Amino acid sequence: MASRAAKPLQEFALIRGVKGQFSRHAPGLVQGIGDDAAVVETTVPIWWHFTTDLLAEGIHFDLNSAAPRSIGYRAAIANLSDLAAMGATPRYLLISLAIPKQVSQSHIYDFYKGLMTACRPYGVTLIGGDTSASKTGLFLSITLIGTTTKRRALFRHGAKVGDLIYVSGTLGDSLAGCRLLAQETSRRSFEKNRLPFSRFHRQFLIRRHLHPTARIAEGQWLNTGRLASAAIDLSDGLSGDLRHVCEESGVGAEVESDHLPLSPACRAYAKARGVSPVQLAITGGEDYELLFTVSPKLRHTLERQAKAHGYRMTYIGTIRPRRFGIQMTTQGKTQPLPQTSYEHFR
Amino acid sequence: MASRAAKPLQEFALIRGVKGQFSRHAPGLVQGIGDDAAVVETTVPIWWHFTTDLLAEGIHFDLNSAAPRSIGYRAAIANLSDLAAMGATPRYLLISLAIPKQVSQSHIYDFYKGLMTACRPYGVTLIGGDTSASKTGLFLSITLIGTTTKRRALFRHGAKVGDLIYVSGTLGDSLAGCRLLAQETSRRSFEKNRLPFSRFHRQFLIRRHLHPTARIAEGQWLNTGRLASAAIDLSDGLSGDLRHVCEESGVGAEVESDHLPLSPACRAYAKARGVSPVQLAITGGEDYELLFTVSPKLRHTLERQAKAHGYRMTYIGTIRPRRFGIQMTTQGKTQPLPQTSYEHFR
Question: Which structural domain range is residue B263 located in?
Fold first, then answer.
């Protein structure tokens, strides 16, 4: 780790502790934590993928309501999901933290544990970072590094008129889970009201919010099989993220609301709360599913292979010319897809 | 740039503006700002170097006293200097910002301008990052990516007993410049006292503080010529940074205080203020000079080549066995080198 800031001795102890606990040898790693820079070797022609996120206390998370482990876990998933959307294999991680006095060392370790729990299934190695004091809130910056073979990656650009739009998994679960958690926190003290739907559904939605999955294997499959013409991960919600694909590809899109994949739990939640499940699916962020476009010629290949792998991939609409705009069709009626931006934490 | 956080429309406008102004094509760059990850190609065996820094308002900089352009410039130099210490060529940059409401868009552009001014001489390309709101201070995270040929880099480990210790440039200037600035700010309003030394010296020291140089060419020369057995950049001050080299190499060190390279301006400042110039040289951080160790066999080669290149490289001491500790010799008297940690901003 670079030792840029004036570091009190406990900060060096933290770096040593993190190095001891989470740093390990990995293929290609020449120098991990402990020098001016981390060093990694490439021997074959390759594409490197870099994604970075800055998370701010009070904007992306609330230390009063979320456990540090969960904050770390979800921060890692957000970055892993970016690499999933490129079809890349995650490899190395750099973590920087600005830590206020009030945050204890054990909280910081818990945060790292959450991060590494999310990364471990993919063999991601912590190779560096930075730590600093903070006079205000806790801030984290994550840089995740991945690879693909040369000339083989999924981009936001590349969607063509007539391509079919697909999403993985189900949509809106994370937003429903987030609202359930918020409601429970605020009501716990004075009433015991529960939504009139099953504990199983409740647990499913909360789990989807607190322990989302990054669709790494699905992204790699779409990439190596050359199945997708464009891809993005659903972090800001379908409405916002589809817009990015359309902008970068210079196209429009038609979403068929009846096709949006909804979990039974999300349907039950929407019914119990009297809200539209389609609305949850369109505006809900942090589902970390993949949205991608597929040439009509590849439709059968895609669906056959998805079935063989056990991946849930759902057709939700079609790429249209740019002048069409971004529209949603509901029972034959077409109207503009609402332009919303998901608020990750309130 | 990854669009992780809920981004208000002005944030997208900022990303577009930054992309338009600072993003450009570069060798090996496949995808810059505008997708889930930045993509870079490698075709030959190579070592990649990654360094990252998190800068916090009130810890590393003060928006009331420092111009955003200067903050950006110095943040870039800190990272460039890390790569200089590896002997690497800087290539790509990722910048993340958490921006409080009070900070204007033009301040943010100025910050980017400062960053890119520092990076331009080296052809570094901005390839990605993240932006977020902040409920408290301004936070920046920089990740700089560089390369060296395979199996050729400078590390902190590698110093051997008997190796000679060298530094580039002069030491303590930045700290003197920092103190001059602080004094002027606090006094300007009520008195016109100036230190009794020349305007030229004053300007030199302030310039060394506000516009430091990263020793990229010097690092590359030491690396490709296999001249240094270990290296680090002086960001925390000689005392702290020499300690890192000794720890990683498992050795001790003897510094000869008479040999420490001091600029005429730093000497004049120390005299005028009645402080020890050696103390400034040992404890002063942010000089961004290189400290490196050289086998005695290579001494003449190093000094001859340095002279030919016009690099100022000064012998300041010798690597000793670990049990010797880290000592400083002054006029025949040896005592432990004071253990200090430089405070970058007060």
Answer: 164-336
